[in-house]
Amino acid sequence: MxxxxxxxxxxxxxxARADQEARPLISGxxxxxxxxxxxxxxxxxxxxxxxxxxxxxxGKTSIFAAGLKNPLGLAVFQQFLFxxxxxxxxxxxRQGKVEVVAGPEAFPEKTVLTGMEIDPESGTI
Length: 125
Prior knowledge:
Blueprint: H1 2-15, E1 32-37, E2 43-47, E3 52-57, E4 60-65, E5 73-77, E6 80-85, E7 88-92, E8 98-102
Antiparallel strand pairs: 1-2, 2-3, 3-4, 5-6, 6-7, 7-8
């Protein structure tokens, strides 16, 4: 519930100018889990229930990546969007092409990942 409240606030803040009333950019999402503003000017939303990452720009929403396991977190480094799933980390290019950066074998014990940060200098996750 807290994630949904934070997502709602982020979306409202993104959509409102000082002279306008705040309005939601998108509604009806199934379990949104993360939101991040990308270097390309788009707002990205990870949606667990749909296994997708949505891109919002200019009031229009599109599917940026689909068929994901369970996107839980988002991070940006350079021109890439990183998506966190319970047992792997994905890197998406500007067209939404998915590359597995770290799979289940990268973690020595059973792990459920719930968040990530990327060092802006080195790119270390």
